[in-house]
Amino acid sequence: MNLSNFIKERLSFESYAFNWDELLIAKANKSETSIQSQLSYAIQKGDVIPLRHHFYLIIPPRYSKFGKLPIELYVNSLFKYLERNYYVGLYSAAKFYGAGHQQIQKEYVLHDKAPLLSISKHAINLDFFTVSNWPTKNVLSKKGDAGMFKISSPCLTAVDLIYHQTKIGGLNRMLSVLEELAEEIKLADAKELLSWYRQKSVLQRFGYLLNEFDPESEIANLIYEHLKIEKFYPVLLSPRSNEKPGSVENRWKVDVNIKMESDL
Question: What positions does the domain AbiEi antitoxin C-terminal occupy (predicted)?
Fold first, then answer.
């Protein structure tokens, strides 16, 4: 079997990725030198992209003009290969819920274990965030063209955006995304998150923003009742290392230290 037949066979099963070991098994009658030579030629033509060491993406004709694949077509294969838990999150998850009218230039994946280096190859830009307290809830399985993949629920997506705001462009960049996401969050999703989520400062900021979007927000009231049980202290809406919260005039104890400008 030559490499083009191997690729055709993978694509016939809606499989858009492979690793070196899978290739060796499929082409057991060929020498490694011959396999490497065919692989190098496919990479040169743009039919295959080496994403990580010994892990490759197949770029079929319908995606060749973009030079990349939608993340849901390969993320599950990549993290199975890396032997880690993962979920598609932040702006990448938001777009699946119809939030985020701007075209995102990067894809975001959250994972457990040691940090992973970002990937920037051809038109592919992947950013990875390590999660120390791995969630057992609010991570959903969604069906894509290449099978199931993991994605944060709307509520987890929202709190992750707020938590990582300083690393992904700041709060104003995400205000319209959060406002659209808020419409997708169901009470059950929020209740599930509150059963395990421990970042009180993030919940305060989230509750404050939900009330800004909708003063009658049921989700905001749920979060407030949850926070009220324990003490919570003043926080900055946008965290800054050289700034401490000043006087606050809202129930969330959030010091609004930026001018909020949504582009909705």
Answer: 69-211
Angle value at C-alpha 263, between 102 and 205, nearest 5 degrees: 100
> Quick one: 197 and 131 in the same domain?
yes
Domain annotation covers residue 176: yes
Q: Is residue 262 part of a domain?
A: no
| Distance, first Cα to last Cα, the chain | 53
CA distance 93 to 48: 26
How many CB atoms within 10 Å of residue 164?
A: 18
Question: Do residues 224 and 110 share a domain?
Answer: yes
Q: What is the pTM of this model?
A: 0.93
- Quote the domain boundaries for residue 91: 71-255
Q: How far apart are CA 108 and CA 183, in angstroms?
A: 22
C-alpha span between 171 and 154 (Å, rounded): 17
pLDDT in tens, the chain (264 residues): 688 899 999 999 999 999 999 998 887 778 888 999 999 999 999 999 999 999 999 999 999 888 899 999 999 999 999 999 999 999 999 999 998 766 678 999 999 999 999 999 889 999 999 999 899 899 999 998 889 999 999 999 999 999 999 999 999 999 999 999 999 999 999 999 999 999 999 999 999 999 999 999 999 999 999 999 989 999 999 998 889 998 898 999 999 999 988 765
